[in-house]
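Structure record:
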Amino acid sequence: MTAAATWRNWGLNQSCQPHEIVTPSTPDEVAAVVAAALREGRTVRAAGSGHSIMPIVPTDGMLVDPTRLTGVTSVDRDTGRATILAGTRLSALGAPLWEAGLSLANQGDIDLQTITGATSTGTKGSGAGLTNLSATITRTQLVDGQGELVEIAAGDDAHPAAQVSLGLLGVITQVEVQLLPRYFLRERNTAMHFRDLLEKWDELKASHRHFSFWWMPNDRAHALYGFEPVPADYGWVKLLDEVEIEDSYDVRHLKEGRVGRAYLVYPDTATDPTFHEMEYMVDAARDREAFLALRELMLSHYPEVDSPIQIRWQKQDSAWLSAQYGRDTASVSVSGVIGTDYVPFFTAVDSLMKSLGARPHWGKWNAYRAEDVAAAYPRWDDFRRVRARFDPRGAFTNEYFRELLEL
């Protein structure tokens, strides 16, 4: 236990000084410390790796640090499922799952998040036929508002709330996830002009496991994410496809990209906190419309902004607070350099995305308030009812969530 210590997030824009920071190493220890905090009338929040830039972690009560709550506790090769402790980083999962003949079905371009930090905020990768990571959760174990360890399994009425819970049902201790047989990926990167992107849009989306791109508004934008030089009005295209190779190496770097174990090919983004990101998921049927509208906004009103526009796709799922709930989506993302006044640009993008019926990434910059969230998520009221059942006293909320939940 650490008293009066300061917690800060990765993006350096959120911090708090909790009453105490605890580092339990087992689910039973989590239950014990949470129960003690509840008896004292304190609020409780859990941190992941701190990659969210929204104020979803800060608390003046107890902060649960999952650093010691790590590891794969069981693997069932027959069902393809594994149970993973809450603080396990995605980067630590690839090797042990691979040795068991399994892999995560999808990942994003950063793998430093904890498994529950990523799933609790609906973090996803790309691929029009692939869901986000939260959709693969088949069982959640957490400590509820009574300080008791409970399990929520697929088929339970609370399961769609637990898959993307924002830590509002309780402190998650471990999750069970559905995996795939391990697989290899081949990456191909290329620059494509704006006109070629539009012409081949549907073909690229349909014919590759993963298709995503970063469109450059000017000749400087490539530098933000550490890409090689890409001309203005070109997209840096990333294609990933499964391949069959001899299992004699982990990953190789070829001229056009990498090839190797899936978990080593997915991550490709610099992890230094140089920018803050915003990301919105629109109905996939409006993918071109959203991209073209944002491109026009940047060229016409924000020519000084050096951020690429990233476009990716995801398959629908049934988690109530997933941005992919009930519809296939296209994600639209831009960033602002830390230390610059990016708020006017972000605010304009936020307004544009709201007009397109978008849902924001829970961990990335957005200006959505209670009424906006209620309009964007059709099961918002259902989630609120389940949350009240698991946490009737609001012990797992903070100032941000109390406003959002209208408590």
Observations:
- The radius of gyration is 21 Å.
- Residues 184-367 form a domain with the Alpha-Beta Plaits fold (CATH 3.30.70.2520).
- The chain has a mean pLDDT of 96.
- The first strand starts at residue 2 and ends at 3.
